[in-house]
Amino acid sequence: MSQLTEVVAASCMVGIVALSAPAFAQTTVTSFAPFSDPPPAGVWYEADVRPGGTASVANLSGVGGNLENNQPLPIGAAKITTDLTNAAKAEVAVTNNYGIAATIIPTLEIGYSWHKASNAGQNLNSAPSLKLTFFNPVCDETPGGDCFATLVYEPYQNGFGNFPPLDTWLRSDLNQTVGSWWTTGGFGVGNGFGGCGDPTCPTLAAWLSTLTPDFSQADLVAVSVGVGSFNQGQIGYFDKVVIAGTNANASYDFEPAPQFQTLGQCISTLIADNCTGLNGKARATCNHEQQMTCFDLFNIK
To answer: Distance between CA 150 and CA 157 in Å, rounded?
Structure first.
């Protein structure tokens, strides 16, 4: 059982309060909380960061190239790295009571923007992956092993080629029929260890219909982004994580901690510069998301 599995089990045992109705909120994340058991709901934290791996929020101002100029939301992004060892791993997650699989998979819309940077000696297949962890606290384990399952979306298995493009921002927007996933095992199937067993991995809808009935009543308890072990030399970025169609909808913007003392100072900088990382000659030339950067940094809704 992984650290994340143990944490979500503890979270369900103590109870995570469900929202009374779906609510869509945009949240700015400036850092990752340390590992905790259980983690607070709605807070991104270091779910499984092992020696050789790092997770941080990077300021991309001034780095240039596609990484800065085409970032989905200025001025920062989440950054995950692994060194050149097989054991290194970097995975961050947010937990909540998103709802049971049978209810939310038909309506789930989840997406993230990601970037794989060049790095000598890296595993060329790997890129920041997206994971959904499900847990059924009243599951009968006898027919198929434990009552956890993590479904893993890998870019290289989803139309980005065996070697995902380097040094460019890309986006994956997924739902019940868009996106293919392998499983770490549970609910009647074994661990795929990164493979699918078929030419293509199943969709979420296919997993819902083929796993044991206990899966349909399993809670989606965690959404994770990261790179796993045996993915050496990764320098990955991600941003604009959107979770919709659940009991705890949210959009996450990863930004460095505010460097401005006041909202007015932030807006003045936006107007004075050029919209790239708070650079712009006129605020009117910035798109809506860029205009909202300062308000997001100060958590003004």
So the answer is: 16
Q: In what order do the strands lie in the sheet with 129-135?
A: 45-49, 90-95, 219-227, 129-135, 148-153, 182-183
149-to-2, 101, 106, 182, 243 alpha-carbon distances in Å:
11, 11, 18, 10, 19
Nearest Cα neighbor of 174 from 148, 199, 150, 153 is 153
pLDDT for the residue numbered 288: 66
Identify the weakest region by mean pLDDT among 5-9, 11-15, 53-57, 260-264: 11-15
- Report DSSP state, residue 19: P
Mean pLDDT of 273-283: 48
Contact yes or no for 16/221 (Cβ under 8 A): yes
pLDDT of residue 271: 58
How many C-beta atoms lie closer than 10 Å to residue 218's C-beta?
A: 24
| Domain residue limits, the chain | 3-257, 260-301
For 239, phi and psi rounded to 5 degrees?
Answer: -165, 175
100: pLDDT strictly greater than 80 = yes
User: Average model confidence (pLDDT) for the chain?
Assistant: 85
Q: Give the C-alpha separation, 233 to 238, whole Å.
A: 16
pLDDT at 70 over 90: yes
Superfamily classification of domain 3-257: Galactose-binding domain-like (2.60.120.260)
Question: Among residues 89, 32, 39, which one has the least CA distance to residue 56?
Answer: 32
